[in-house]
Amino acid sequence: MNAPRIPLAQLERGIPFEQRHIGPDAAAQAKMLAQVGYGSLDELTDAAVPDAIKSAEALRLPGARTEAEVLAELRTLADRNQVLAPMIGLGYYGTFTPPVILRNVMENPAWYTAYTPYQPEISQGRLEALLNFQTVVAELTGLPTSGASLLDEGTAAAEAMALSRRVGKVKGGVFLVDADNLPQTVAVIETRAEPTGVEVVVADLTEGIPAEIAERGVFGVLLAYPGASGAVRDLRAVIGRAHELGAVVTVAADLLALTLLTSPGELGADIAVGTTQRFGVPMGFGGPHAGFMAVREQFARSLPGRLVGVSVDADGNKAYRLALQTREQHIRREKATSNICTAQVLLAVMAGMYAVYHGPQGLRSIARRTHRYAALLAAGLRAGGVRIAHDTYFDTLTAVVPGRAAAVVAAAREGGVNLWQVDADRVSVACDETTGRAQLAAVWAAFGVEADIEALDGGTDDALPGGLLRSDDYLTHPVFHQYRSETAMLRYLRRLSDRDYALDRGMIPLGSCTMKLNATTEMEPVTWPEFGALHPFAPAEQAQGYLTLIRELEERLAEVTGYDAVSLQPNAGSQGELAGLLAVRAYHRANGDTGRTVCLIPSSAHGTNAASAVMAGMKVVVVKTREDGDVDVEDLHAKIDRYGPELAVLMVTYPSTHGVFEEHIGDICAAVHDAGGQVYVDGANLNALVGLAKPGRFGSDVSHLNLHKTFCIPHGGGGPGVGPVGVRAHLAPYLPNHPLQPAAGPATGVGPISAAPWGSAGILPISWAYVRLMGGEGLKRATQVAVLAANYIAKRLEPHYPVLYTGPNGLVAHECIVDLRPLSKSTGVSVDDIAKRLIDYGFHAPTMSFPVAGTLMIEPTESEDLTEIDRFCEAMIAIRTEIEKVASGEWPADDNPLRHAPHTAAALGGEWEHAYTRDEAVFPAGVSAADKYWPPVRRIDGAFGDRNLVCSCPPLDAYDN
């Protein structure tokens, strides 16, 4: 008998990508549905999702394509980008990513699939890498404390403005910005200043602070070193004068230049900001890159964002952890000092490792070569009659060519080089690590100059000011001297990654964080030079592939969410929140409703919501949450009645922060609209909605989306992220725009939210590919399986741990919360104990104590297969049995494997004096000796680290006992 004939078209399609992305296959889904009590995915989600919000029609998206087809499409788009030598400068530079770092960090899932190091015992590798980063920034800037990275240079400068206002002596006054700062940085500062009532004054400070400005009071000053024009000036006098006025002084500095120039700290600066992009991180059409901030010691405890500190573990051994204000938004909410709750960890790791690999000598060599090319370029131009505006510079020249600037820039483009036209009479030219003799020749030709580089080299002096040459040592720690060979560097990177737990090891069931597959096919195009090497201010005709990809992704996200317009500029979820709230504020002001300043926020909301609202110039009013986790509708109506004419917006997360589909969301939205307010739906939980419901259709006016959650951009150990904002048509005129790229947003927009026109454009191919690979039906099934997996876990764990909140028909959304408080009260076993014990079982813990103290929020996502989900459930059930041993007295309350978890290999040595066995400690039920993950440290003492703040590489013998 012949085998059945299979149509060629079916064979050609191959295995759909959906089957690679979604973990449980059909048989597994059937088993899970039986456990939950439903016959199909459609039946389950019909029961879980309230009728009032369901989408009637399928998503209107292109059909799913195979991985090979999508890569071919992306190759076509990439080929439409034209990568010229990037001599534009303005904060973005060509750089060589060492291949050992490219392959073993940027392209390595052990680094890019890790989550924020909230469980530090299993994050020691990336925490050490971040400590290296902090050390590089602190020592090059000459300021003792650096954070673990900020989103980009522009937002770092804006954070410095806020910090200056908060800690400075002058109350009131203006924020004074030197005119030679990067234009995008000035624009971001102005966007951030206006809602909070800060007056920004931009002035030429070459001759000092003008008397008329000094008389008004100055709380902070921002200087550039070098300036956007390329000029390198001695800032000591203006810094001294600013301090006489009581101002806090920030210097926006170039780290590569600081390998040769006197540090900002030595010049007297209080704060230094900038970007580490040119330390081996591709330009990526604007991002992602790790911004930085370093401060004087007295400001260390006011730093925004994340700070890695040195502490000790239970044995007194050195260990790293996030220190101080980590996730302060969830504690201080509207009193938080910043809405930044993430970092740019993957990019900070790359920049830090670039410094580790090159060391101080290598960095100085790169800087000297870069400067030498600039000096020779200037000499050739001068010899040809072109005036250079400044005598001292590092890498950037401003050439004065009256009336010829456009012609020169066009001629350079024909020669394969992008320059920057400052105005009709001036051209800016920047050298970098990738600059060579060919680029100099092309630039000279564009200016109509002939020059002999060899002859020039013999008679041209450097152009760094003698009084600013750096004389102190930096990067003296052994880590910056040990790894010169690729073999040594490779092993160092492997050693650090082995100390971490990431998705390449197992499930990370963090609620509200959506740790799903970041497919290799989605990741691959990010490192193609046509996407990675493009300058964000390159002419639009050179970026047609990128601009098409951006437009298509915006359109597809609009279709998924039901909104009319989307901006991809915000480079984190927190920035998307701010952009959305600024759009609401601008809309009210355009309608003459300047008194609408109240933002209603449920008490259960993400902490960044409140912080973002304050940054948008709004007053936060908290709405109560009922015992079942829903918004207290009665209290909401009472607040609406009280604040009606002042009501600007309600911020609400949907599904709720408690992981349920609230049935009254439509009524809630209608009540706010009836009072003249707008509705902001936080998109953190969109993974439960895609293909099932659209926020823009069930009552929301604006949402931010987390592409690093729902749309597969990897978390990278705590960054990068992308937080687009989607709006209905009436808010579209108020989306972010950009002063250097008109196509990036409407002319009536609120200004730039990030330094680059499209934010972290370099990772947008990931989400574009995900949507293209899955198609509308695939995206819907992914959502349905995510909901199924969460309900399956809830049903399996419910006999052992109470599930705190459920929605319609007793179902949860894409995550569930298990309540540990009764157990903790009766046994003394804490949430921390269970979280750390899960490490011994080979798991990253779920989200701890958010949104409810004493609970675990669990989110399996659609990508985990049933074997891994069951392994997690069995570990949780086994831990429940262990808790019973504590409750019964079999194990003492102060000597049991939960209290002492996690257990390291070193803990097994010597005398064993515990009430439980070594095997019970490290090989609990279901843990294989062959596959065991060994944490590198025991439980870390967080309070010790906060009391003894050490945030850069300590001496090798520090904390050794």
UniProtKB/TrEMBL annotation:
Q: Which GO terms describe its cellular component?
A: cytosol; glycine cleavage complex
The UniProt record lists the EC number as 1.4.4.2
Describe the location of the Glycine cleavage system P-protein N-terminal domain by residue ranges: 19-447, 476-736
- Annotated ranges, domain Glycine dehydrogenase C-terminal: 782-903
The alphabetized list of GO BP terms reads: glycine decarboxylation via glycine cleavage system
Keyword Transmembrane part of the UniProt annotation = no
Question: Which cofactors?
Answer: pyridoxal 5'-phosphate
Entries under InterPro entries matching the protein: GcvP, GDC-P_C, GDC-P_N, GDC_P, PyrdxlP-dep_Trfase, PyrdxlP-dep_Trfase_major, PyrdxlP-dep_Trfase_small
Looking up SUPFAM superfamilies in the UniProt record yields: PLP-dependent transferases
Q: Which reaction does it catalyse?
A: N(6)-[(R)-lipoyl]-L-lysyl-[glycine-cleavage complex H protein] + glycine + H(+) = N(6)-[(R)-S(8)-aminomethyldihydrolipoyl]-L-lysyl-[glycine-cleavage complex H protein] + CO2
Example GO molecular function: glycine dehydrogenase (decarboxylating) activity
Entries under Pfam families matching the protein: GcvP2_C (PF21478), GDC-P (PF02347)
Q: Where N6-(pyridoxal phosphate)lysine occurs, residue numbers?
A: 709
Keywords from UniProt, A to Z, are: Oxidoreductase, Pyridoxal phosphate
Claim: Metal-binding is one of the keywords in the record: no
**Job of this protein:** The glycine cleavage system catalyzes the degradation of glycine. The P protein binds the alpha-amino group of glycine through its pyridoxal phosphate cofactor; CO(2) is released and the remaining methylamine moiety is then transferred to the lipoamide cofactor of the H protein.
Per the similarity annotation, which family is this?
Answer: Belongs to the GcvP family.
The protein's matches in NCBIfam families, at most eight in alphabetical order, are given as:
gcvP, PRK04366.1
Subunit and interaction comment: The glycine cleavage system is composed of four proteins: P, T, L and H.
What name does UniProt use for this protein? Answer: Glycine dehydrogenase (decarboxylating)
Organism (species): Streptomyces paludis
Q: Which gene encodes it?
A: gcvP
